[in-house]
Amino acid sequence: MPSATPHADLAIVGAGVSGCALAASLRSRGWRGSIELLEIGRGPGGRAATRYSRQDPDLRINHGAPLFNIRAQTPPRLLNALAQRAAISPFRGPIRSLDAERTLGSAIEDGFSDGTLWQGHGAMDQLCAQLLELAMEQGGSLRRRFGTLVRHLRPERLDAALSWTLQDDAGGALVKARWLVLSGTLLAHPRSQQVFGWDDIPLEQAARSLADPELEAAQAQLASIDAQASCNLLVTLPQEAASAWLALPWRLLQCTPTAQERWGLRRISVQPLADGRCAVVAESSPAFAADHLDIYGSRSSAAQLLRAKPGPSAETRVLDALAQALTDLTELPLEGAARQLMRWGAAFPIAPGLDPSHRVCPASAIGFCGDNLSGDGFGRIEGALSSAEALAEELLEKL
Ligand SMILES: Cc1cc2nc3c(=O)[nH]c(=O)nc-3n(C[C@H](O)[C@H](O)[C@H](O)COP(=O)(O)OP(=O)(O)OC[C@H]3O[C@@H](n4cnc5c(N)ncnc54)[C@H](O)[C@@H]3O)c2cc1C
Questions:
Q1: Ligand 1 centroid to residue 102 C-alpha, Å
Q2: Which CATH class is domain 51-124+227-349?
């Protein structure tokens, strides 16, 4: 017998920084309605997630953002709570830059390294995991559903009341909710048609059926947000090889534009592991990523759920190219290293993003948060946090 569809006051799509911060923010403002949080990935984090391995319990690789910076005079309120519970700790670097002549310089202004620097304590995903803990400690029902792709959005109007039914790929109902919040652009953007072969843009279809001009305007703006991609090479180095990497005078290396042109790499982070090994993550330049957009990391759960076609030989070619660039640039060998690829199709949104006046469309009982909201912090974790706090504030009187 099919099981009954769960009901919730609020469904949040996405357990990245903004989705988790929204749950924490609503709870800290005293709202105790039921929340259903749905996420494609295996755990919370989104673009600030950490990769683990069942076979290798000591392994953790921050395969998206390795740190975050807070520039605002008045930081997001949640920052204090996160620091107090040791979910985040100061990022101490050091950060250096490298030019095409391989000259090491001081940190350069790239938008991610000024202000106060933080990292997830122990791993970047602690930021999101602890935001969820914070939300759950304060009471109210919060159900987290990982490994769950929301594929269709079905709004339904009964008399004056509106409800949203979220469906999976097969059209099965995942949840029915009074209010919906989308924290990513996947369901609103034509990229899902181009990349995953979807025959519709779920939010566009919903907006059309609701005939809500405000939602139509929000959807159109979300659909027009371009983004830069990033192909990330993740390597794990055994202890013997790790010592040379750990002795480098930097933990985060920024490549200047000329260096990016020469090696196709944008940034490199060295991430020490507890057992003396280290992980190294080399983020590709936007140009390299644009040339290899259709090559996925086969271990990405999102790629698997989205049925991205596996391409083992193409993946090996990309891994080889990035590994070669990394050894050329650092002049350090990668012998004995385990390699993985993580392709972020929409790593960094390009301004202007969604205008905050579209953050909530009350007639359609829907809201938006994420680093794609225009304003300070756009395209960064700071923006994801502050967009969630602003949305929570606005939703309080409506939920
Ligand atoms: C390689 C890389 C390096 C970065 N470096 C930095 C840095 O140094 N400093 C910094 O501040 N920021 C950095 N960023 C950006 C930062 O990671 C983002 O700004 C931030 O994580 C965005 O959070 P978000 O919640 O807005 O979006 P996301 O993290 O994208 O969260 C959206 C979530 O929704 C889920 N989702 C989307 N659609 C669906 C669906 N249909 N069904 C179910 N789940 C869905 C996604 O899986 C995702 O987890 C970096 C990003 C990348 C990729």
A1: 31
A2: alpha beta
- Helix, strand or coil for residue 176? strand
Does the beta carbon of 286 sit less than 6 angstroms from any atom of ligand 1? no
Closest atom of ligand 1 to CA, residue 383: 19
Cβ of 302 closer than 6 Å to ligand 1, yes or no, is yes
* Smallest CA separation from ligand 1 atom 34, residue: 14
| C-alpha 16 – ligand 1 centre gap (Å) | 6
pLDDT tens string 121-158: 999 999 999 999 999 999 999 999 999 999 999 999 98
Give CA separation, 191 vs 40, 176, 241, 279, in Å: 17, 26, 40, 31
Q: Which atom of ligand 1 is nearest to the CA of 38?
A: 43
Give the CA distances from residue 220 to residues 306, 368, 369, 387, in Å, rounded to whole numbers and listed in that order. 23, 13, 16, 19
What does the DSSP assignment read for 230-289? EEEEEEEE-HHHHHHHHTSS-SEEEEPHHHHHHHSEEEEEEEE-TTS-EEEEEEEPHHHH
Res 192: pLDDT:
86
The CATH number of 7-49+128-225+350-396, from 3.40.50.970, 2.60.40.420, 3.50.50.60, 3.30.420.40, is 3.50.50.60
**Backbone phi, psi, residue 260, to 5°:** -60, -40
41 CB near ligand 1 (under 6 Å): yes
CA distance 9 to 395: 12
Task: Indicate if ligand 1 lies below 6 Å from the C-beta of 39.
Answer: yes
Mean pLDDT across the chain: 94
Can you tell me which atom of ligand 1 is nearest the CA of 187?
Answer: 41
- C-alpha 348 – ligand 1 centre gap (Å): 9
Q: Is the pLDDT of residue 10 over 80?
A: yes
Cβ proximity of 15 and 37 under 8 Å: yes
pLDDT per position as a tens digit, 208-221: 999 999 999 999 99
What is the rounded CA–CA span in Å between residue 54 and residue 365?
40
Say if ligand 1 is within 6 A of residue 48 CB: yes
Please tell me the predicted confidence (pLDDT) of residue 1.
46
